[in-house]
Write a structure and sequence with these properties.
Blueprint: E1 3-7, H1 14-23, E2 26-29, E3 38-39, E4 46-50, E5 57-60, E6 65-70, E7 82-84, E8 88-89, E9 95-102, E10 108-114, E11 118-128, E12 141-150
């Protein structure tokens, strides 16, 4: 198996590691390496999407893997209690979910396979979890979405 994405955080649960292994996608933890957005994997190329890709449209080939890494560290302010929902696909016939989770620390991870031609939208929601006493939420909800065209 080849490494397809380097993650700077070590918070991915063991269960997700098992899912990654069964889908043929491998993930390692390192913070000093800047990865390419696409790399070869046993099951085809991999495209990684992050919070910075919100609103974009991307094109992938059939059998490509699309990963979504949304980290709570991309939200404003230290200690602000933001959390991402698990990413979802609008059309499982175009972009099938292999795994999708939201972690207790507010991060979210999704792995999707391009299974059919067409267009699907990946979405997740970042919500503020008000903890009293604590900081107030200035932007309580943010919808993240990326349109994925499969050719």
């Amino acid at each position: 198996m080849k490494v397809v994405k380097v993650i700077g955080r070590l918070s991915i649960p063991v269960a997700m590691g098992l899912v990654l292994a069964t889908t043929g996608v491998s993930v390692t933890a390192a913070s000093a390496v800047s990865p390419a957005p696409r790399a070869s994997a046993a099951n085809g190329p991999v495209l990684e999407l992050t919070a910075a890709d919100n609103g974009k449209t991307v094109t992938v080939d059939r059998d490509d893997i699309v990963t979504v890494f949304l980290t709570s560290s991309t939200t404003p302010g230290p200690g602000t209690p933001f959390a991402w929902s698990a990413p979802t696909s609008s059309d499982s016939n175009v972009l099938a979910e292999a795994a999708s989770i939201a972690t207790p620390n507010g991060d979210a991870l999704g792995i999707f396979r391009a299974t059919g031609s067409g267009s699907a939208t990946l979405t997740a929601v970042r919500e503020c979890k008000i903890i009293s006493p604590g900081p107030m939420c200035t932007a309580p909800t943010l919808l993240w979405s990326v349109t994925v065209n499969v050719q």
